[in-house]
Specification:
Chain lengths: ~170, ~300
C-alpha cells in the first residue's frame, strides 16, 4: 500500500512539475520528458500494467495542462509503457547504459507517435521539422537524465532482496 | 477457461485495449470541452493547488531570505532613513496640529476684538504661570499700568499686580491679591463689600462674602463684573458652585472662575474702556427659571397661623 501511495505521489508530483513549471530544466528550448522517464522505469521494474497506469495519470495531467484533446498524451504514453513492459521480460535491463538506450528509443517512439496523432488531427503541421527539432533533442535530453533519475527511483522503490531474506 | 481466468491471463492486453479504445474515442470525438474533460481538469487543478501554493510560498520565502542576506546593509540604511522620515513627519504633524489650535484660538480673539470696538485692548502672551500669578510679555513700555484688568474672550482673568519694563505680573482669580467688583448677573445682586475674593487655596475658587440672608442666590448662577469694577460691567467671572450660611444674617457663595489661568496662552490687557451697552440697559429682566430649585423665603415672616391654616 505504501508503495502504491509513493508511486502515486511521485507520478502526480512529476506530472505537476512538468506541466506547472515547463521551464524547469529547459535548455535552449528543449525540456526533458520526466513522465516518460517514469513510464519506462515502471515498465522495466514493475511491468506493463504499472507502466500503463503511470502513463494514464501522467498523460492526463499533460493533456489537461496543454489544452490538448483528452487522450493524446495518454495514448502515446500507454503504448510506450506497454511496449517497454513487454520488452523488459526479454531483455537484461539492469545496466544503466541499456536503460538509457531504452529511454532514448522510448522518447523517440513517444515523440513520433505524438507527432503522428497530431498530424492526423491537423495535417498542416510540419512533422519532419517537429521530429528533427523537438522530438530527437527531447529524447536525447531525457536519456541523459536517466542515470540520475533512476538512481533516485531505485532508492525510493528498492524491492527487498529475496536471497537475503527480505533484508535490505 | 472461465472469464476470471481469461481476464487474469490477458489483463495487460485487456487494460491496454480498454485505454487505447477510450483514447481513440476521445480523440475521435474531440473531448476537449466535454464534462469528463472539465472534471479531469478540475481534479488536476485541485490536486495542483496545494503544490502551487507551496511553491509560491517557498518562492516568496527564498526571495525574502535571500533579500535579507544580500541586501542587509541596504535594508538597515533604508530603515534608518524611514525612521528619520517618521520622526520628521511626526514633528510636522504636531506643529500643524498646534498651528490649527492656535488658529482657532486667535480667530476667537479676533472675534472678541470685533465685538468690543470701544475697548482698547493690548494683546499679550503668557510667558509664565505660577501659583495663581501669570507673567505676560507686556510692560510699562507698552503702556501697561498696575490695576489694569486682564481678560480673555471667555471672561475675567485677573488684575495687573506689578509692572516691569517689558513684562507684568497678573494676579488671577486664583490668587488672594485679586479682588474684582462682581454681581449676580440675573438680579445684579452685589455682596455688601461689592467684590469677589480669590480663595487663594488649592481649591481654586473665589468667594462672594457678605450676602444678605434674604437675597436670592442660587448655585449655577453666573457672576459677572459690576460697573464699579476695573472691568467693563457684565464680563463673566464664574458660576456659583454652592451657597453657605455665614456669620449672623449673612451668607456667602463659592464661585468657580470661568477662566483657568493655567491653560492660557494669550490674554488681553484692558487699557481703556467705554460704557458698555449693558450698563445703559440697566438690570436685565428677571425671568423665572424653571431649572432652578424653588426658593425658600428666609426668614419666613408669614405668621404661624397663616402657615398652618388649611
Amino acid at each position: 500500500m505504501k508503495r502504491h501511495l509513493l508511486w502515486l505521489v511521485i507520478v502526480v508530483g512529476t506530472a505537476l512539475l512538468q506541466t506547472m513549471w515547463p521551464d524547469f530544466l529547459t535548455v535552449r528550448g528543449v525540456a526533458p520528458d520526466l513522465v516518460l522517464l517514469l513510464v519506462v522505469y515502471f515498465g522495466l521494474v514493475d511491468g506493463e500494467e504499472r507502466a500503463m497506469l503511470t502513463g494514464v495519470v501522467g498523460g492526463m495531467y499533460q493533456d489537461v495542462a496543454s489544452g490538448a484533446v483528452l487522450g493524446h498524451h495518454v495514448l502515446c504514453l500507454v503504448l510506450v509503457g506497454y511496449t517497454i513492459g513487454r520488452v523488459s521480460t526479454r531483455l537484461m535491463t539492469d545496466h544503466p547504459a541499456i536503460r538509457t538506450l531504452l529511454v532514448l528509443f522510448a522518447g523517440a517512439a513517444h515523440g513520433a507517435l505524438y507527432t503522428a496523432v497530431s498530424y492526423v488531427q491537423r495535417p498542416d503541421i510540419a512533422t519532419v521539422y517537429t521530429i528533427a527539432v523537438i522530438v530527437i533533442p527531447t529524447a536525447f535530453y531525457t536519456a541523459l537524465l536517466t542515470p540520475v533519475v533512476y538512481f533516485v527511483l531505485e532508492r525510493l522503490f528498492r524491492k527487498p532482496d529475496s536471497l537475503s531474506g527480505g533484508k535490505k | 477457461m472461465t472469464f476470471s481466468q481469461f481476464f487474469n491471463a490477458n489483463r495487460p492486453v485487456l487494460l491496454l485495449s480498454f485505454i487505447v479504445l477510450l483514447c481513440l474515442m476521445s480523440l475521435g470525438t474531440g473531448f476537449e470541452s466535454s464534462i469528463i474533460h472539465r472534471a479531469v481538469e478540475r481534479m488536476v487543478s485541485l490536486t495542483a493547488y496545494p503544490f502551487l501554493r507551496a511553491g509560491t510560498a517557498l518562492d516568496d520565502f527564498s526571495n525574502r531570505a535571500f533579500g535579507v542576506v544580500f541586501s542587509y546593509d541596504d535594508i538597515i540604511a533604508e530603515n534608518k532613513a524611514l525612521a528619520q522620515d517618521v520622526a520628521t513627519m511626526k514633528l510636522a504633524i504636531a506643529e500643524r496640529r498646534e498651528a490649527s489650535v492656535q488658529n482657532r484660538r486667535l480667530q476667537g480673539y479676533l472675534g472678541f476684538l470685533r465685538e468690543e470696538p470701544r475697548l482698547r485692548l493690548e494683546p499679550a502672551r503668557v510667558i509664565e504661570s505660577l501659583k495663581g500669578i501669570i507673567t505676560i510679555d507686556r510692560g510699562s513700555v507698552h503702556g501697561i499700568q498696575p490695576f489694569m484688568g486682564v481678560a480673555t474672550p471667555d471672561g475675567v482673568v485677573g488684575v495687573v499686580l506689578s509692572v516691569a519694563d517689558f513684562s507684568s505680573k497678573v494676579a488671577t482669580l486664583h490668587h488672594p491679591d485679586c479682588k474684582v467688583g462682581a454681581m449676580v448677573e440675573r438680579n445684579r445682586l452685589r455682596a455688601y463689600d461689592g467684590i469677589i475674593h480669590a480663595d487663594g487655596s488649592f481649591r481654586q475658587i473665589c468667594n462672594m462674602w457678605y450676602i444678605d440672608m434674604k437675597n436670592e442666590v442660587l448655585p449655577g448662577e453666573l457672576i459677572v463684573t459690576s460697573p464699579e469694577s476695573l472691568f467693563p460691567s457684565g464680563y463673566p467671572i464664574g458660576h456659583i458652585r454652592s451657597v453657605h450660611a455665614g456669620e449672623a444674617l449673612l451668607k456667602y457663595a463659592e464661585v468657580v472662575p470661568i477662566v483657568d489661568p493655567y491653560k492660557l496662552d494669550e490674554v488681553f490687557v484692558i487699557m481703556a474702556s467705554g460704557t458698555r451697552l449693558y450698563d445703559l440697559e440697566g438690570p436685565p429682566r428677571i425671568v423665572a427659571r424653571t431649572d432652578l430649585a424653588p426658593l425658600r423665603e428666609f426668614p419666613d415672616e408669614t405668621p404661624i397661623q397663616e402657615q398652618l391654616a388649611p
